[in-house]
UniProtKB/TrEMBL annotation:
Keyword entries, A-Z: Acyltransferase, Membrane, Transferase, Transmembrane, Transmembrane helix
Domain remarks in the Swiss-Prot or TrEMBL record: The DHHC domain is required for palmitoyltransferase activity.
Protein's recorded name: Palmitoyltransferase
Organism of derivation: Sander lucioperca (Pike-perch)
Region annotation Disordered: where it falls in the sequence: 303-364
Gene expressing this chain: zdhhc2
Length: 364
């Protein structure tokens, strides 16, 4: 084993190396700003009206893009609350037991008081050895961050951060604005790109910036569009990238649509209930990241066969009761409980007996 000193040097070097992709993106963005604003708009465009409109629209998109990128990078991923960590006595108890089944018994006893509904493939309680905690639903241990991350989507090297519950909305906006940024540059640069090939541009260095600007913006547009469309689909289905690869396992078995509440509610779970916050990179996701409302059925709620989709009356009834009255603690689900259209704290819950297709995150 390497001495701890050299290990910390290695870790320090790794931390520096992880910033290289972010630096690479930052340099490309800085160059694109110089090429678009100075070389294209100021140096090459002669029409003042066109110049002003391009610069105005460009700067609005640029600010939103950089803001969303900044938020995705610097928003700390959320870790499980202390309720999910093992107490000192539980740790001791667990260490004393060497049989897997006895350890599971202890974990099951602790999990009884927590809103945990997913299991491992073998049906065991999901436990993180490294963090010594019971993993909340949708939480995974990130080997790069060396932490358990709430609703972990993936570890993104381009933002040198884990994308999860705390910054998934920012990541979506980052994809949307960067795509818009590239599409806007491609569209407005096109006519000058054509002029380059017809030799109608003045023979200055600006023409090479115009050429590379078009190539890079159109290339990034294609890759960003495919990534953005994929994540839009994930949002509509209420799946993380990890869950799209491996479906979550509930007590009743594997259910890839276990967290899906229908497209509109799935979208609002990430972007919030207030339309004005949807395009802005400020946190507005609903819930506490530790517990999630779910339809514990194998049916997709977006399918017409589901009563939610087929019967407007039952859909209306489900509207108010879709979310648990107390997902974990009222204070932890501020966003959830402060949304009257999503919860009715005193309303009776629909139970499987009254409607077999709906089963809510409520402890029996
Ligand atoms: Zn962990
Ligand atoms: Zn990570």
């Amino acid at each position: 084993m390497a001495p701890s000193g050299s290990r910390s040097i290695k870790k320090g070097c790794q931390r520096v190396l992880y910033w290289i992709p972010v630096l690479f993106i930052a340099l490309i963005v800085a160059w694109s700003y110089y090429a678009y604003v100075l070389q294209l708009c100021i140096e090459s465009i002669e029409d003042t009206g066109e110049k002003v409109i391009y610069l105005l629209v460009y700067h609005v998109i640029f600010i939103m893009f950089v803001w969303a990128y900044w938020q995705t990078i610097f928003t700390r991923p959320m870790n499980p609350l202390k309720e999910f960590h093992l107490s000192y006595s539980d740790k001791e108890l667990l260490e004393r037991e060497d049989r897997g089944e006895s350890q599971q018994e202890i974990l099951r006893r602790i999990a009884k008081d927590l809103p945990i509904y997913t299991r491992t493939n073998s049906g065991a309680i999901r436990f993180c050895d490294r963090c010594q905690l019971l993993k909340p639903d949708r939480c995974h241990h990130c080997s790069v961050c060396d932490k358990c991350i709430l609703k972990m989507d993936h570890h993104c090297p381009w933002v040198n951060n884990c994308v999860g519950f705390s910054n998934y909305k920012f990541f979506m906006l980052f994809l949307a604005y960067s795509l818009l940024y590239c599409l806007f540059i491609t569209a407005t640069d096109l006519q000058y790109f054509i002029k380059f090939w017809t030799n109608s541009l003045p023979d200055t260095q600006a023409k090479f910036h115009i050429l590379f600007l078009f190539f890079s913006a159109s290339m990034f547009s294609v890759s960003l569009a495919s990534l953005f469309i994929y994540h839009c689909w994930l949002v509509c289905k209420n799946r993380s990238t990890l869950e799209a690869v491996r479906s979550p396992v509930f007590r009743h078995g594997i259910d890839k649509n276990g967290f899906s509440l229908g497209c509109s509610k799935n979208f609002r779970q990430v972007f919030g209930d207030e339309l004005k916050y949807w395009p802005i990179p400020v946190f507005s996701s609903l819930g506490d990241g530790c517990s999630f409302p779910t339809c514990l059925v194998n049916l997709d709620p977006e399918q017409p066969s589901s009563p939610m989709g087929s019967n407007p009356a039952s859909k209306g009834a489900a509207e108010g009761r879709q979310f648990p009255t107390k997902p974990l603690r009222e204070s932890q689900s501020r966003l959830l409980t402060s949304t009257p259209s999503w919860t009715e704290s005193d309303s009776p819950l629909l139970l499987p007996s009254s409607n077999p297709s709906l089963y809510f995150l409520q402890k029996p």
